[in-house]
């Protein structure tokens, strides 16, 4: 498979914490126009990998967006949209103000704020305070912030956490539309049935090592579900 200039490329990440290997030679790619799901049990190295990709942590190896490191981007939100670690705003701040502050930080016009609220279905929540939002609304607001700069890359950590069945159905449609627009989508999740419904490609990490990767159907082979694949690979002795 040839590399597109709009791929996320993670190459040979190694990280130690004391004597423990957190990541061991982690390498994979997320392709343009496709949804790549990054899976693994708690403590497997998913968050560490994503934090390194987003310039929040260091390691040996490289993690790039179209050949560029996150920290080298002048206005990162115009290139990469990340929904990671909750909303991260003052609970008494209004939704519109929250998004305007984020937009201003990266030179994004304020007109984009109402656009993204419409896209994620929160147009009626502009004057609501962050502390009054439900968990699902908070997730949607995180997606709105990620979309502000109309970025090529979307990096989403547990994006369906807190969404009700209607919200999950909405997310499936939303994320497929983003990929169909030519975006490069990398998402991590522990809800395997959801991943199976949306992913084109799958990467599974366990004990800091990549143990399976490829197109969803190829990784699933003859097993009934992605859940079966996951547990057969990650359970001890599996």
Characterize this entry briefly.
This protein is of the alpha/beta class.
What does this protein structure show overall?
This protein has 238 residues and is an alpha/beta fold. It folds into two domains: 1-69 and 152-238, P-loop containing nucleotide triphosphate hydrolases (Rossmann fold), CATH 3.40.50; 87-150, no CATH class. The protein is 33% helix and 25% strand. The protein is built from eight helices and nine strands. It has helices spanning 46-53, 95-105, 111-119, 135-147, 165-180, 192-198, 216-220, 226-234; strands at residues 8-17, 20-30, 35-39, 60-65, 80-83, 153-157, 184-188, 201-206, 209-215. A six-stranded mixed sheet has the order 5-6-7-3-8-9, sandwiched between helices. The radius of gyration is 18 Å and the shape is globular. The model has no long low-confidence stretch (mean pLDDT 92).
Return the CATH topology of the largest domain.
Answer: Rossmann fold
Number of domains: 2
The helix tally amounts to: 8
Average pLDDT = 92
**Main sheet, how many strands, which sense, barrel?**
6 strands, mixed
What is the architecture of the largest domain at the second tier of CATH?
A: 3-Layer(aba) Sandwich
The residue fraction in helices comes out at 25-40%
Distance between the first and last residues' Cα:
29 Å
The radius of gyration over CA amounts to 18 Å
């Amino acid at each position: 498979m040839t590399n597109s200039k709009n791929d996320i490329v993670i190459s040979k990440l190694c990280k130690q914490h004391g004597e423990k290997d957190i990541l061991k030679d982690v390498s994979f790619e997320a392709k343009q126009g496709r949804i790549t799901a990054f899976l693994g049990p708690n403590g497997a190295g998913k968050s560490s990998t994503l934090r390194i990709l987003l310039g929040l942590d260091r390691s040996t190896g490289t993690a790039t967006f179209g050949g560029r490191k996150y920290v080298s981007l002048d206005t990162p939100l115009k290139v990469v949209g990340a929904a990671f670690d909750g909303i991260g705003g003052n609970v008494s701040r209004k939704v519109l103000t929250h998004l305007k502050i984020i937009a201003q930080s990266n030179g994004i016009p304020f007109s984009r704020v109402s656009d993204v609220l419409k896209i994620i279905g929160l147009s009626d929540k502009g004057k609501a305070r962050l502390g009054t939002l439900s968990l699902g609304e908070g997730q949607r607001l995180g997606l709105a912030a990620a979309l502000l700069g109309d970025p090529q890359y979307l990096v989403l950590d547990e994006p369906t956490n807190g969404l009700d069945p209607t919200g999950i159905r909405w997310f499936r449609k939303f994320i497929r539309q983003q990929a169909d627009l030519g975006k490069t989508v990398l998402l991590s999740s522990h809800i395997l049935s959801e991943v199976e419904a949306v992913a084109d490609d799958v990467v599974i990490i366990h004990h800091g090592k990549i143990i399976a990767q490829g197109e969803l159907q190829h990784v699933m082979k003859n097993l009934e579900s992605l859940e079966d694949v996951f547990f057969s690979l990650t359970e001890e002795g599996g």
